[in-house]
């Protein structure tokens, strides 16, 4: 089962089968969940860090399992029986041909490993009975882990009766994506043994991320706290889909979410796995993040600065910045913002003097805005701009009576670049960062 180049094969499957965020966050969920996950990832400035850390954790778990027996014994990584079963299935798929097609009977997550390797083919009824017995044995071996109970007992029958588990066209990619989702959930739901966080494989391996590059020391709280925040972010995206799946997972025998009692199901998961102080990786990450933030107050500055005697030059590390250069930088940001907005306005300059704009802060009339004040002559400015942007020029958003989707996307990207330039100009030239935040869309406020 071992391969000579596990990382190469893993990267090949990761690129061809699922992207990192699909693999560890939603794993081929329906469009509703994908839209939600993509919205979060696309509008968080550190989404690349989220993807890289998620991928790094998955690779480390798979690489560790491929160590020889002596190395695994020395590493003392506490994999549970259920986690080992899933990882073995993952490696069996990764080491196979990319065009491999498997059916459900070939990849039972909780089935017996030896039976699957020998390729025994029993009747469906006998397979189901054996799987039920083996599930009970796995639960005992895991020391109380209930990772396979995706619904409370009161709702298991109701959830299973809503959507039948039918799978006539199974592929290796479908199985791989569901197994990655299964492994991610098992890692996040792994409860501590004797209250020791090191008994969780996720907490144990995530500690490796705290090492500096050469492994000779540990990162400072300022550098490691963002990693902790990422580790917190991943379970928060996984648990909702685990508790209330948008679709069925036929290979894992997980039905789609029931039609009722959603709040009760979510609350049971929240109380057990997501509250501060819970004996799970998420609870441990919450404690570590809180501790890291407290340590930040006593940590020295990232770098020191000093001023020249004439107070015109500031030095940091081996660099220096004169105030004339700084003023020129602010001017360049302002000019850049002007250029972006000229393109957004399609070079249109309304005959409006900003100095003559009238506004009434004491006017509490619902719907009042300086835009609609007749003295400002801005009532129809929006319509005029829309007419120019949609129907005039080679970059018009409407071509031949239909919306030009590439032009619309380019215009929205131009809008974002203009906001970045405007925010930088306001922060550097005026020092009013809060004023610039008010001009930004909601997701920028969320990131802040």
From TrEMBL:
<feature type="compositionally biased region" description="Acidic residues">
    <location>
        <begin position="107"/>
        <end position="145"/>
    </location>
</feature>
<dbReference type="InterPro" id="IPR016024">
    <property type="entry name" value="ARM-type_fold"/>
</dbReference>
<feature type="region of interest" description="Disordered">
    <location>
        <begin position="103"/>
        <end position="154"/>
    </location>
</feature>
<protein>
    <submittedName>
        <fullName>Uncharacterized protein</fullName>
    </submittedName>
</protein>
């Amino acid at each position: 089962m071992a391969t000579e180049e596990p990382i190469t094969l893993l990267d090949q499957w990761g690129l061809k089968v699922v992207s990192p965020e699909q693999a560890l966050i939603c794993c081929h969920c329906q469009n509703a969940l994908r839209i939600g996950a993509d919205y979060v990832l696309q509008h968080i400035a550190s989404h690349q860090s989220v993807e890289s850390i998620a991928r790094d954790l998955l690779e480390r778990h798979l690489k560790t399992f491929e160590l020889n027996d002596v190395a695994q014994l020395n590493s003392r990584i506490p994999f549970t029986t259920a986690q080992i079963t899933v990882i073995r299935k993952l490696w069996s798929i990764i080491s196979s041909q990319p065009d491999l097609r498997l059916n459900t009977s070939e990849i039972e997550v909780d089935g017996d490993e030896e039976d699957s390797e020998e390729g025994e083919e029993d009747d469906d009824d006998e397979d189901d009975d054996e799987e039920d017995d083996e599930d009970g044995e796995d639960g005992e071996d895991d020391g109380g882990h209930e990772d396979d109970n995706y619904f409370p007992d009161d709702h298991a029958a109701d959830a299973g009766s809503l959507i039948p588990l039918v799978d006539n066209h199974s592929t290796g990619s479908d199985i791989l994506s569901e197994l990655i989702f299964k492994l991610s959930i098992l890692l996040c739901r792994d409860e501590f043994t004797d209250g020791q966080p090191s008994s969780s494989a996720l907490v144990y391996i995530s500690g490796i991320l705290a090492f500096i590059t050469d492994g000779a020391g540990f990162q400072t709280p300022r550098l490691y706290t963002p990693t902790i925040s990422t580790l917190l972010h991943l379970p928060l995206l996984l648990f909702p889909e685990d508790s209330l799946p948008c679709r069925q997972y036929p290979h894992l025998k997980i039905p789609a979410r029931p039609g009722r009692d959603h709040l009760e199901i979510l609350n049971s998961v929240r109380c057990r796995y997501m509250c501060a102080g819970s004996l799970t990786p998420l609870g441990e990450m919450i404690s570590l993040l809180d501790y890291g933030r407290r340590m930040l107050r006593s940590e020295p500055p990232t770098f020191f600065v000093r001023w020249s005697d004439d107070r015109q030059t500031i030095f940091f590390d081996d660099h220096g910045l004169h105030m004339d250069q700084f003023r020129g930088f602010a001017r360049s940001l302002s000019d850049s913002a002007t250029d972006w907005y000229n393109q957004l306005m399609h070079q249109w300059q309304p005959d409006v003097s900003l100095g003559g704009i009238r506004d009434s802060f004491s006017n509490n009339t619902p719907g009042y805005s300086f835009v609609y004040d007749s003295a400002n002559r801005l009532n129809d400015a929006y319509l005029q701009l829309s007419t120019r942007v949609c129907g005039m020029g080679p970059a018009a958003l409407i071509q031949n009576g239909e919306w030009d989707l590439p032009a619309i996307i380019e215009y929205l990207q131009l809008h974002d670049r203009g906001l970045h330039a405007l925010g930088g100009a306001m922060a550097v030239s005026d020092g009013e960062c809060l004023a610039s935040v008010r001009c930004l869309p909601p997701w920028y406020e969320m990131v802040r």
